[in-house]
């Protein structure tokens, strides 16, 4: 079946040019249909979609179980607001807490919103720590190269000039320390510090993982000094690394977790898990979201968890991801002038180019592989969690051809 678009590619491009805000550098293709790991453009060309819509489409495109769940829920009840209860939100909270530990969930609609909730938690905690006085304990230490979304709190927590430029003054209270350097974090910790906020594996800046020793040491430091450890798992969580949350590999548990991207499998939903003993800092009226955790969004989230569990995807991502990483690493030896490093875990992989990576993103697309650019000449390859050995092998083949053909 080829796609039957209503309007031509040129017309779509013209509509974007005339009417859509120019805040993205979009690739010049128009996608019209998807199934599993494949997406089709308006000319009927198929792509192996290892962008997953930036780590979002965890079940690939239009997984039958996910589609059925959304269809069923859409015909039953879509939105109620948080003035009332709905079984789906309670059930999704129960299942997410099953992975995170004793604690409570708050639902929102995006990663940025989840990060804002973490930052608001740090403020409430700081006030409690300062005996009820505001404005004394609100410093949040973040990691250089981190990314916490585009909202004011998260943007202020994102120590990257390209993200913050033009939007100052920022929200005060954020300090920056060096990733994987415990001394650097310890040096920033004082009486005014309420929390540490960081990604377990930095995504946007180029797949830079926290080492397990660093996370264990940070957990200890935070415990000793009464500082919250807040982990942004918006990109690396929800099974992408082969454990449900990426921090599980270090054997630690944070005090709160931000999630979004893969959680809804393409339907917008974000969530925050807060450990039981800090969850009561949010009392009625202190935070909210009109759309957060609708019956429909939670149905999508439940469908994602169903498939991850029923199809044993975590184990598959661990095993197949390790084999795939080994094959990708062989490309570094084959093309040392072009490819400097391959790193990551599970289906969260970064290819560090020794040269400008932008032509490779385009070259891969022309050869049928969709990937995601990241900072520092890194290309992110983010297969859906359902990707098979054959599909992973196909990506290696396209990468090899592209590395051979370009520059
Ligand atoms: C994508 C991302 C965000 C922002 O999520 P949005 O849904 O775009 O608001 C925040 N933190 C991390 C780690 C991300 O990767």
TrEMBL record:
<comment type="pathway">
    <text>Amino-acid biosynthesis; L-arginine biosynthesis; N(2)-acetyl-L-ornithine from L-glutamate: step 4/4.</text>
</comment>
<dbReference type="InterPro" id="IPR004636">
    <property type="entry name" value="AcOrn/SuccOrn_fam"/>
</dbReference>
<keyword id="KW-0055">Arginine biosynthesis</keyword>
<dbReference type="GO" id="GO:0042802">
    <property type="term" value="F:identical protein binding"/>
</dbReference>
<feature type="binding site">
    <location>
        <position position="290"/>
    </location>
    <ligand>
        <name>pyridoxal 5'-phosphate</name>
    </ligand>
</feature>
<feature type="binding site">
    <location>
        <position position="147"/>
    </location>
    <ligand>
        <name>pyridoxal 5'-phosphate</name>
    </ligand>
</feature>
<dbReference type="InterPro" id="IPR049704">
    <property type="entry name" value="Aminotrans_3_PPA_site"/>
</dbReference>
<feature type="binding site">
    <location>
        <position position="289"/>
    </location>
    <ligand>
        <name>N(2)-acetyl-L-ornithine</name>
    </ligand>
</feature>
<keyword id="KW-0963">Cytoplasm</keyword>
<dbReference type="GO" id="GO:0006526">
    <property type="term" value="P:L-arginine biosynthetic process"/>
</dbReference>
<comment type="similarity">
    <text>Belongs to the class-III pyridoxal-phosphate-dependent aminotransferase family. ArgD subfamily.</text>
</comment>
<dbReference type="Pfam" id="PF00202">
    <property type="entry name" value="Aminotran_3"/>
</dbReference>
<feature type="modified residue" description="N6-(pyridoxal phosphate)lysine">
    <location>
        <position position="261"/>
    </location>
</feature>
<dbReference type="InterPro" id="IPR005814">
    <property type="entry name" value="Aminotrans_3"/>
</dbReference>
<feature type="binding site">
    <location>
        <begin position="232"/>
        <end position="235"/>
    </location>
    <ligand>
        <name>pyridoxal 5'-phosphate</name>
    </ligand>
</feature>
<dbReference type="InterPro" id="IPR015422">
    <property type="entry name" value="PyrdxlP-dep_Trfase_small"/>
</dbReference>
<keyword id="KW-0663">Pyridoxal phosphate</keyword>
<dbReference type="GO" id="GO:0003992">
    <property type="term" value="F:N2-acetyl-L-ornithine:2-oxoglutarate 5-aminotransferase activity"/>
</dbReference>
<dbReference type="InterPro" id="IPR050103">
    <property type="entry name" value="Class-III_PLP-dep_AT"/>
</dbReference>
<dbReference type="GO" id="GO:0005737">
    <property type="term" value="C:cytoplasm"/>
</dbReference>
<keyword id="KW-0032">Aminotransferase</keyword>
<keyword id="KW-0808">Transferase</keyword>
<comment type="subunit">
    <text>Homodimer.</text>
</comment>
<dbReference type="InterPro" id="IPR015421">
    <property type="entry name" value="PyrdxlP-dep_Trfase_major"/>
</dbReference>
<protein>
    <recommendedName>
        <fullName>Acetylornithine aminotransferase</fullName>
        <ecNumber>2.6.1.11</ecNumber>
    </recommendedName>
</protein>
<dbReference type="GO" id="GO:0030170">
    <property type="term" value="F:pyridoxal phosphate binding"/>
</dbReference>
<dbReference type="InterPro" id="IPR015424">
    <property type="entry name" value="PyrdxlP-dep_Trfase"/>
</dbReference>
<keyword id="KW-0028">Amino-acid biosynthesis</keyword>
<feature type="binding site">
    <location>
        <position position="150"/>
    </location>
    <ligand>
        <name>N(2)-acetyl-L-ornithine</name>
    </ligand>
</feature>
